């Protein structure tokens, strides 16, 4: 896909995602207003909107007029809740997120904790209500997102990441963390989009697997950028992994091996996407761009 056409389409998906977020989140003046203002503060702070874009684009790849905005917003709610909680002093203790003060800095710790808490059930409310006319689809979406964000993937990956780096087999732990903390929340929106678009069971699985491979690659690129980029570009502190004494694929295997793995995983993801019976051009270009990103 040609670069300008890709960029234009990406921006259109981001706009669609941001409109959906604005419409589907409770208004800031809903009581209690500080809580709802904080939820909107973090949800509307920008960011790449990668996960909602994956969801919207996957739905569109399989069908012409799918209503994927509920699922796209649900996925972004979970992602944003995890960022808010990850930034808290008891976790990564980070003052900056998406180029502005993290939620607990802009508000306070209690409000940030509760804003994250409130975004989590909102995600499932959006799925249950948004797809109420197709109960089986709603059920499948809820299963997909709850498993991805649950105790064996997103939260489990974070739990393992928070443990001291000297405990246990490092390579095995690292794979668990990569798949749980990052890849699960890239695989889920792709699979969910495919479900909404009416893809076959086998194409949904191809999308899930593509997301897993691209998601691990995404985290490896994050680790590379953590060493080579700067705070201004990333919108969050860099060098945080070294600072927090965390081991990463880069610290275990070096830059060259990490770059090679990013390339291999990206090819694996593309192969899965190309095996699907949909219009996969944009998604392939998106996966390729994830490997080359600079923020
Ligand atoms: C607290 C349950 C819980 C989980 C936290 C998301 C997370 C797990 C930790 C954040 C730190 C981190 C580096 C996570 C890996 C996933 C990742 C690279 C998140 C950042 O995603 P981007 O770059 O962020 O897509 P934007 O702001 O662009 O949406």
List the helices and strands and how they pair.
Elements: H1 3-24, H2 33-43, H3 50-62, H4 69-87, E1 96-97, E2 100-101, H5 103-106, H6 109-130, H7 135-148, H8 154-162, H9 170-196, H10 201-228, H11 231-234, H12 240-243, H13 249-253, H14 255-274, H15 281-292
Antiparallel strand pairs: 1-2
Bound molecules: geranylgeranyl diphosphate.
Geranylgeranyl diphosphate (GRG) is lined by residues 47-48, 50, 82-83, 85-86, 98, 154-155, 158, 181-182, 219, 222.
**How much helicity do the residues have?**
over 70%
Overall domain count: 1
Shape: globular
The chain-level mean pLDDT equals: 93
CATH third-level topology: Farnesyl Diphosphate Synthase
- Give the percentage of residues in beta strands: under 5%
Distance between the termini: 21 Å
Q: Order of strands across the biggest sheet?
A: 1-2
For the secondary structure, the number of strands is 2
- How does the helix and strand content classify structurally? mainly alpha
CATH architecture term: Orthogonal Bundle
Order of helices and strands: HHHHEEHHHHHHHHHHH
Bound molecules: geranylgeranyl diphosphate
Q: List the uncertain runs.
A: none
Sketch the major β-sheet. Answer: 2 strands, antiparallel
Radius of gyration: 18 Å
* CATH homologous superfamily grouping: Farnesyl Diphosphate Synthase
State the CATH class: Mainly Alpha
Query: Count of DSSP helices?
Result: 15
């Amino acid at each position: 896909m040609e670069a300008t056409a890709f960029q234009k389409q990406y921006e259109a998906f981001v706009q669609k995602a941001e409109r959906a977020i604005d419409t589907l989140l409770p208004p800031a003046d809903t009581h209690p207003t500080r809580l709802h203002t904080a939820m909107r503060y973090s949800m509307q702070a920008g960011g790449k909107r990668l996960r909602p874009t994956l969801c919207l684009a996957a739905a569109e790849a399989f069908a012409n007029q799918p209503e994927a905005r509920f699922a796209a917003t649900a996925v972004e709610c979970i992602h944003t809740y995890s960022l808010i909680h990850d930034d808290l002093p008891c976790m990564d203790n980070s003052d900056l997120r998406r180029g502005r003060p993290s939620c607990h800095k802009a508000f306070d710790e209690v409000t940030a904790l509760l804003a994250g808490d409130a975004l989590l059930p909102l995600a499932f409310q959006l799925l249950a209500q948004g797809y109420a006319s197709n109960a089986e689809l709603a059920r499948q979406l809820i299963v997909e997102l709850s498993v991805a964000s649950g105790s064996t993937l997103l939260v489990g990956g974070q739990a393992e990441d928070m443990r001291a780096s000297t405990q246990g087999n490092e390579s095995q732990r690292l794979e668990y963390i990569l798949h749980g903390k990052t890849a699960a929340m890239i695989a889920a929106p792709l699979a969910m989009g495919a479900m909404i678009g009416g893809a076959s069971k086998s194409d949904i699985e191809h999308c899930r697997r593509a997301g897993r491979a691209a998601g691990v690659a995404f985290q490896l690129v994050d680790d590379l950028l953590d060493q080579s980029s700067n705070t201004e570009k990333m919108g969050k502190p860099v060098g945080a992994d070294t600072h927090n004494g965390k081991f990463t694929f880069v610290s275990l295997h070096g830059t060259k091996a990490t770059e090679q793995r990013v390339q291999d995983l990206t090819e694996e993801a593309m192969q899965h996407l190309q095996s699907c019976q949909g219009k996969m051009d944009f998604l392939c270009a998106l996966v390729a761009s994830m490997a080359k990103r600079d923020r």
